[in-house]
Design a protein that fits this description.
The protein is of the alpha/beta class and 571 residues long. The chain has four domains: 3-151, DNA polymerase, domain 1; 156-249, Beta Polymerase, domain 2; 253-324, DNA polymerase, thumb domain (Beta Polymerase, domain 3, 2-Layer Sandwich), CATH 3.30.210.10; 334-568, TIM Barrel. A seven-stranded parallel beta sheet has the order 11-12-13-14-15-16-17. Helix 20 packs parallel to helix 21. The longest helix has 18 residues, at 135-152. It is globular, with a radius of gyration of 26 Å. The chain starts with a helix and ends with a helix. The chain binds 2'-deoxyguanosine-5'-triphosphate, calcium ion (CA) (2 copies) and zinc ion (ZN).
């Protein structure tokens, strides 16, 4: 178990104790320990073995023993007991906005409810609103929250699926007789959320039983759904479904194409094949009875007289027509990115100090870094007062010399409900760039929200609009806003639009990105990083940008710092 796993286990203990109505100090002790363990530098082995854990602030005797048990055995008796005691339905209720441990305990104790289904029923029967401190409005919110949960239950964030798939691929890579294990499906197409993981590998028939056994016997297969001659299906410990397909080397390119999908893309490809006198299925491309030999996906597309279509574009949204006439653009690549914008630091709600963020960005190979902490109205996030803005500006300039990488001084300014930016003109003049984001009053009516954002865009201080819809994937719906109107305004005013690459956001949506590029709007791929690790989310943004048909020329941070600054300057 690494630090992240152990921190997650401690966090879970805290939550379970809270739901059980335990003493709040005890609850907090586990939550603090979870945070403390993530902060320990280097790897945990030394700290555990040498007994140094006890010296870490926030980790006492009892908890350090539990950490040692987790570290040594990968499990913890105490946690298993708690899990057995607290109904899993109560944990699910925690995901509903407005329900915390205290309210959930009340629901459990007074109504005897332990599952989401029962809770939904109680809302519909108007029993929830009668509980002390609840009321009509909360009941409505809970009902809506349950609907969202039901809708989201079967999908997972792209990154989560990616990590799980990497583990499966690494495992397969170590089994004799396996070659070219690779992910397909929605994961390879870079959909923002993924239903299940599809992995394929070339395995000769005589080796398959052994490979299947290696999979089903591993810790990655928390429960096995099925295991046959060519396919093994299981669920990972995090509840992700995974289908592994074993095929021959000759079948590989055809099956890779088939399993990558999408279903609609495949149907359109089969239609194209038919038109040209071929037959296509998951095992091959045929002319009459004869297999048309293809050693790669490239050769399949070529046989159908098509330009190669990158996986991200395979959604049957015009890619086949484009490929017919060589009109698939050269899509953006990771190496095209020169700079990284929208980086938070511990000046506001970031976890790492300015210097660490700047150094880490430099280490990732970026030649410039755009710092953008929160503005003053974002009090919950340590938003900067005008005085602090001035202090930070000096620090930013000093960091640039010290660290030897270009540092741009920006801000993520709240777009206030009336559409104004969060500082006076003199303060706004101090920034190299200003990102405007909506962080409050999400419930505005569509026209009003759109006008709010347009008003901010009219201010020539604004360089860029951040996370346009405010959505949190699988958790919070976007607020109401007319995205097309905003894009047209961005084109007119020369305002840059952010593609927020945080895996929970991926906002602008890739469907809209394509429209933005069509209008000539410049897009900036921003990690919205709040810690060093968050900086590499930028590269996930590249996948989404590709899915939105973007090329390097459509993207702000493929430009030099000088040019990026010019493009962000208005008037
Ligand atoms: P997901 O898992 O819901 O995020 O989406 P996918 O696209 O990964 O879908 P999945 O796992 O059901 O199937 C993987 C691929 O297999 C899919 O992208 C295309 C192919 N496929 C699955 N079912 C069909 C089908 O009925 N017809 C065709 N033509 N292809 C299919
Ligand atoms: Ca899938
Ligand atoms: Ca599947
Ligand atoms: Zn923000």
């Amino acid at each position: 178990m690494d630090k992240k796993d152990i921190a997650a286990a401690l966090e879970e203990i805290g939550t379970l104790l809270d739901l059980a109505g335990e003493n709040p100090f005890k609850v907090r002790a586990y939550q603090n320990a979870a945070r403390a363990i993530e902060q320990i530098p280097g790897n945990l082995d030394d700290a555990v073995v040498s007994g140094k854990l006890r010296e870490v602030k926030g980790i006492g005797e009892g908890i350090s023993q539990k950490i040692a048990e987790l570290h040594a055995t990968g499990s913890l008796g105490y946690l298993d007991e708690l899990r057995a005691k607290i109904e899993p339905g109560l944990l699910e209720m925690l995901k509903i906005h407005g329900l915390g441990p205290k309210r959930i305990r009340l629901i459990r104790e007074t109504l005897g409810i332990t599952t989401l289904g029962e809770l939904e029923y109680a809302c519909k029967e108007n029993r929830l609103k009668l509980l002390e401190g609840f009321g009509e409005k909360l009941q409505e919110n809970v009902l809506r929250g349950i609907e969202d949960l039901k809708k989201y239950k079967d999908r997972h964030l792209w990154v989560e699926a990616h990590h799980a798939a990497e583990q499966v691929i690494t495992l397969l890579g170590g089994v004799r007789g396996v070659s070219d294990p690779q992910a397909a499906g929605s994961l390879r197409r870079c959909r923002e959320t993924v239903g299940d993981i599809d992995v394929l590998a070339a395995v000769e028939p005589k080796d398959r039983a052994r490979v299947a056994a290696a999979l089903t016997g591993s810790k990655l297969a928390a429960s096995v759904i099925g295991s046959g001659d060519t396919k093994v299906s299981f669920r990972t410990p995090h509840g992700l479904g995974c289908d592994v397909r074993m095929i021959t080397r000759a079948e590989y390119p055809y099956t890779l194409h088939h399993l990558t999908g999408s279903k609609d893309h495949n149907a359109a490809m089969r239609g194209r094949a038919q038109k040209l006198g071929f037959k296509m299925n998951e095992y091959g491309l045929y002319k009459g009875e004869r297999l048309v030999p293809c050693a790669s996906e490239d050769e399949i597309f070529a046989a159908l007289k098509l330009q190669y279509i990158p996986p991200e574009l395979r959604e049957n949204m015009g890619e086949i027509e484009a490929a017919e006439s060589d009109a698939i653009p050269a899509l953006l690549q990771k190496d095209d990115l020169l700079g990284v914008m929208h980086v938070h630091t511990s000046w506001s709600d970031g976890r790492n100090p300015l210097d660490e963020m700047v150094r880490a960005a430099k280490d990732l190979g970026f030649s410039y870094v755009g710092i953008a902490d929160h503005s003053r109205s974002a009090a919950y996030a340590g938003g900067l007062s005008p005085e602090r803005v001035r202090e930070q500006r000096k620090e930013v300039r000093a960091a640039e010399d010290r660290i030897g990488v270009r540092v741009l001084f920006g801000i993520e300014s709240d777009i206030l409900p009336d559409g104004s930016l969060d500082y006076d003109k003199k303060t706004l003049d101090l920034f190299d760039f200003v990102i405007g984001s909506v962080h409050s009053k999400f419930n505005m009516e569509r026209g009003e929200m759109t006008r709010r954002i347009l008003k901010a865009m009219e201010d020539p201080h604004l360089s860029m609009v951040g996370h346009l819809t405010g959505r949190l994937l699988l958790a919070r719906e976007p607020y109401e806003v007319d995205q097309e109107v905003v894009l047209h305004a961005a084109a007119r005013f020369g305002v840059v639009m952010e593609l927020n690459a945080n895996p929970n956001r991926l906002d602008l949506d890739w469907r809209i990105l394509r429209q933005a590029a069509g209008l000539g709007v410049l897009v900036s791929i921003n990690p919205d990083a709040h810690e060093v690790e968050g900086l590499s989310d930028t590269f996930l943004g590249v996948g989404i940008a590709r899915k939105g048909w973007l090329s390097a020329k459509d993207v702000l941070n493929t430009r030099s710092a000088k040019e990026a600054l010019e493009r962000m300057k208005r008037n």
